[in-house]
Amino acid sequence: MITRSILLQMAASRKMEHFSSHNRLAKGFAMRFIASEKMEDVTLPVRRLNSKGLSVSLDYLGEGVTTEEESEEVVQTYLKLFKLIKQENLDSNVSVKLTALGLELSESIAERNLRRLLDAAGPDQFVRIDMEGSALTDSTLNCFYQLWNGANAYRNVGVVIQSYLHRSADDIEKLIKVGARVRLCKGAYKEGPDVAFQHKSEVDSSFVSLMKRLLKDGNYPGIATHDMAMVNATQEFATQNSIGNDKYEFQMLYGVRRELQLELARKGYRIRIYTPFGDHWYPYTMRRLAERPANLRFALASILRG
Ligand code: FDA
User: Fold this and answer.
1) What pTM does this model have?
2) What does the CA dihedral 98, 100, 103, 108 come to, rounded to 10 degrees?
3) What's the pLDDT tens digit per position in 80-114?
4) How far is the CA of 99 from the centre of ligand 1 (A)?
5) What's the CA-to-centroid distance between 285 and ligand 1, angstroms?
6) For the chain, domain boundaries
7) For residue 91, what is the DSSP state?
8) What is the pLDDT of residues 110-138, one digit of tens each?
9) By C-alpha distance, which of 244, 261, 243 is closest to 252?
10) Active site annotation includes 183
């Protein structure tokens, strides 16, 4: 029996990445969660989502770069992406992982690169910093605050908080205080009991209490989940407190619970689809497998179909 923990360990393996990236069948499975390998091909899937009333957040898959040259390639891709979004008039903002901008090389490289993205994005284009493993939470939030509080006081940037971390209630209060835009999710990395809740019931109950704080006092939060219980709790809390649908948005992942995405849009809720593209799809896809081990059956079936 392959557990979530083993799948998450495999997600971090360079050897497995090398093997899978060259395997046609693994790639076939990954494409369920990835809009396209090339940036030129991402316009069509985004248009399709937009035409159904779904907003998008585009993410260029490039986490964990190990050289400055690689981080420069990521920056250049995002610069082109901003132009594409504008030219094609897409309803999309962007998401970025700081390890794709060089965070594991140094905080200052990642911050400098992020600043370049925010300058190029301009005030009308929003950039969400994804949250990665807990070893990077402090440095990710530091980068965010440097830019938020710095001389330029960037306001076109937001962060992500994970409900499985013990520290998140404190982080949320600080972010609410400065008026930052937060995406709330459960958290997708392998974390120990010293830093994170280990049981679904604890992660869920933390999610609900953080969601309430954000809906009540936060700045246009993104409630990122496919869990019907979390969606219902959000809708109920919003109704009870007369919080309009325009004060927050639901967010879901490309290729996950598509019917629910459409149903929420049809009912008048705002919903944004996190839409990754690029050929560095292995770690992202493995985290999706770990979230729902039943996905393994689809993966194996597609491999057996050949
Ligand atoms: P849960 O895992 O309890 O799943 C509820 C139900 O949703 C499942 O029973 C299943 O039906 C369906 N489902 C969930 N995941 C599925 C999958 N992969 N395939 C098929 N069905 C699935 N994490 C992080 O650490 N940092 C980040 O920056 C982000 N960013 C982010 C953005 C957005 C828009 C979303 C939706 C999620 C993230 N995440 C993330 C991932 C998040 O932390 C979490 O791992 C997943 O969303 C799964 O948690 P759920 O809330 O969906 O609940």
Assistant:
1) 0.94
2) -90
3) 999 999 999 999 999 999 999 999 999 999 999 99
4) 20
5) 12
6) 34-280
7) S
8) 999 999 999 999 999 999 999 999 999 99
9) 261
10) yes
As given in the structure block, the two tokens for residue 252 are 């879901």
Say if ligand 1 is within 6 A of residue 32 CB.
Answer: no
Q: Please check the confidence at residue 303 and state whether its pLDDT lies above 80.
A: no
* Structure tokens, 12: 């971090």
Dist. CA 261–CA 19, nearest whole Å = 33
What totals of helices (H) and strands (E) does the chain contain, helices first? Answer: 13, 8
Contact 279, 9 (CB under 8 A): no
Please check whether residue 56 is in contact with residue 298, taking contact to mean a CB–CB distance below 8 angstroms: no
State the pLDDT at residue 4: 80
Tell me the two tokens of residue 231.
């969606």
What is the pairing mode between strands 249-253 and 271-277? parallel
Of 127, 252, 253, the residue with max ligand 1 atoms within 8 A of its CB, to mutate for a pocket test, comes to: 253
What is the third-level CATH fold of 34-280? TIM Barrel (3.20.20)
